[in-house]
């Protein structure tokens, strides 16, 4: 059911011979008779500056929809909304399929690399430990005697950390190069 059209000033409705109706930019409907009574470019109802548009069958469909019944509008726009929704869903599914395919390829690559790493680790012989020959005399520490005559306290060259030879002596060395590093 369409919305009844009537003049917002005199409340007349369209009838045969009907006066023409205009819509103001401020949202009022005014008949041709009342429109002539008011000031030009001013709404007869709210007295604000406005423009008018003659209502007819050639009026823009967006303006005509203001006078359509809600049920008619719902049917009209539900068809458009359904088409838009289907279009967007189709594109979402397309993107999802692409992402799934990309994920499957990455998972396959990861599986291959993991298998290769496992094979390399299985081929690697058991680790052997060898110690480097360092003499035990390299651990000797030096100390400087105290110099009390010139006011200095005793000074020692004993490091608070183990020496380099102590560190390297306790390190184990793998004679085979790492399979991950390039030689």
From TrEMBL:
Pfam (any one): zf-RING_5
Please give the CDD domains that the UniProt record associates with this protein: RING-HC_RNF212
Q: Which GO terms describe its biological process?
A: homologous chromosome pairing at meiosis; protein sumoylation; reciprocal meiotic recombination
**Keywords noted in UniProt:** Ligase, Meiosis, Metal-binding, Zinc, Zinc-finger
InterPro entries on file: Zip3/RNF212-like, Znf_RING, Znf_RING_CS
Ranges of Low complexity composition bias in the record: 152-165
- Whether Zinc-finger counts among this entry's keywords is yes
Originating species: Calypte anna (Anna's hummingbird)
Name-wise, this protein is Putative E3 SUMO-protein ligase RNF212
The terms describing its cellular component in GO are: synaptonemal complex
Instruction: Please report the stretch or stretches of sequence annotated as the RING-type domain.
Output: 7-47
Ranges in a coiled coil: none
**PROSITE patterns cross-referenced by the UniProt entry:** ZF_RING_1, ZF_RING_2
Q: Does the keyword Thylakoid apply?
A: no
- Region: Disordered; residue ranges are 124-183
Please list the GO terms describing molecular function: ligase activity; SUMO transferase activity; zinc ion binding
Compositional bias ranges of the Polar residues kind: 127-151
């Amino acid at each position: 059911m369409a919305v009844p059209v009537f003049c917002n000033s005199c409340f007349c409705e369209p009838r045969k011979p009907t006066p023409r109706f205009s819509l103001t930019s401020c949202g009022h409907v005014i008949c041709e008779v009342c429109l002539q009574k008011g000031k030009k470019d001013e709404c007869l109802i709210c007295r604000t500056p406005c423009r008018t548009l003659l209502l007819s069958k050639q009026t823009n469909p967006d303006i005509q929809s203001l006078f359509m019944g809600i049920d008619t509008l719902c049917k009209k726009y539900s068809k458009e909304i359904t088409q838009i929704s289907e279009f967007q869903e189709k594109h979402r599914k397309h993107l999802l399929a692409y992402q799934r395919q990309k994920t499957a390829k990455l998972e396959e690559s990861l599986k291959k690399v993991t298998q290769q790493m496992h094979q390399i680790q299985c081929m690697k012989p058991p680790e052997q430990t060898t110690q480097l020959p360092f003499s035990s005399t390299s651990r000797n520490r030096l100390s400087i005697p105290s110099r009390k005559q010139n006011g200095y306290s005793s000074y020692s060259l004993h490091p608070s950390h183990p020496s380099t030879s102590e560190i390297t002596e306790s390190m184990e060395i793998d004679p085979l190069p790492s399979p991950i590093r390039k030689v």
